[in-house]
Amino acid sequence: MSTRYWVIVASKNHVMRGVQAGIAQANHGKAAPLKRMNVGDGVLYYSPKYEFEGNEKLQAFTAIGHVAEETVYQFDMGGGFIPFRRDVKYLNCVDVPILPLIPQLTFIENKSSWGYTFRFGFFEIPKIDFDLIANQMTTE
Are the beta carbons of 61 and 105 closer than 8 angstroms? Predict the structure, then answer.
């Protein structure tokens, strides 16, 4: 099976919780997106804003890693929220703003309405785009 590359959309504060725990969650804890992934697949997080509850824009890629395990599992976060998760090995990285990359990213077809691409919260991208972003993010 060939490696695939994914973007998950989440606020940076939520992304950092996942990085600290070594997990990925997508689309408010749904299982279906995570089940599409395979061990070794590349994962990028795009954060439109800093805080889930806030309004301050970030518009940057904020985490990068690779799917580490086969299992998609649930975790009780309390308050009745039991999202699905997947283990991810994250790389050391820096935030990379999207605006300077838009002209080069092939997965963004309409450059003037680029935000539309991120509306579903989880999607696959070509390796060439993953590599372009990864080369700017990674510090390892």
Answer: no
Q: How far is CA 44 from CA 26, 76, 79, 81, 82, in A?
A: 11, 24, 28, 24, 23
d(C-alpha 94, C-alpha 127), whole Å: 20
User: What is the span of the domain harbouring residue 127?
Assistant: 5-137
**Per-residue confidence (pLDDT) for residue 77, from 0 to 100:** 86
Q: What is the CATH number of the domain that holds 99?
A: 3.10.590.10
- Domains: count for the chain: 1
Residue type, position 42, single letter: G
Provide the token pair at 81.
């929220």
Over residues 34-91, the pLDDT tens digits come to 999 999 999 999 999 998 787 889 999 999 999 999 999 999 888 988 899 999 999 9
